[in-house]
Specification:
- 86% of the residues lie in helices and 0% in strands.
- By secondary structure, the chain is an all-alpha fold.
- It has one domain.
- Helix 1 (2-40) packs parallel to helix 3 (69-86).
- It is elongated, with a radius of gyration of 18 Å.
């Protein structure tokens, strides 16, 4: 009985971590897409800003592809914050 309970808890923990990982990946993908859309909009025309954001998007995409989803989210959040300050 205890063994079955232990196995059940392990399966539950694995399922929860998988769902959290999938949600993080979706957040990363959505952040990358938002940044790409934002930089391609007419509001940001400075070529230097485009260059920097394109580099950061490439870094975030590389982090995601390497399985470092939390790094991807940190990069995209940092870029979004910088763009918000730039556009004020």
């Amino acid at each position: 009985m205890k063994r079955m309970l232990g196995c059940g808890l392990l399966l539950l923990a694995g399922a929860i971590s998988f769902q959290a990982s999938a949600a993080d990946t979706q957040t990363c993908d959505a952040n990358i897409q938002r940044l790409q859309d934002r930089i391609n909009s007419a509001g940001t025309t400075d070529p230097k800003v485009h260059e920097l954001v394109d580099k950061d998007i490439a870094d975030a995409t590389a982090a995601r592809d390497e399985g470092k989803v939390k790094d991807c989210i940190e990069i995209t959040d940092r870029v979004k914050s910088r763009l918000d300050k730039y556009n004020k």
